[in-house]
Amino acid sequence: MKKNILAAISMLAVTSPAFAELGQAREVSCLIIEDGETKVDGPCEFDPTDGFGSFDFQTYNGKFWGSFYSAGDGIGEVVWNGEPYASHAHNIQRDLLREEACWVNDYATFCFWDDR
Predict the structure, then answer these.
(1) Model's pTM, two decimal places?
(2) Cα(90)–Cα(86) distance, rounded to whole angstroms?
(3) pLDDT digits (tens, 9 = 90+) for 90-116
């Protein structure tokens, strides 16, 4: 039983964007919904920025980009452009709670997962 649990944890570490190596951006699947509107549903670049779960993200066409800041204990916030091709991060979603591969509040959902 202990071996199965360790194997499952090892597999999670390999497949979860949260365990990606710092400074090693990689492609993941993204789903971003804000105020009921799906803004992103497809591949994006995921780039961990610290050892605490914070990361940058961007769509490959440059349409959307932003940063997630982990406050620890499954809470965080996203600062992102929110409008297609906007040059500044003017949308802020605070008090996001972790729900599996997603960060969610009453107004937005940000999901990042590895299909591999």
Answers:
(1) 0.81
(2) 9
(3) 999 999 999 999 999 999 999 999 987
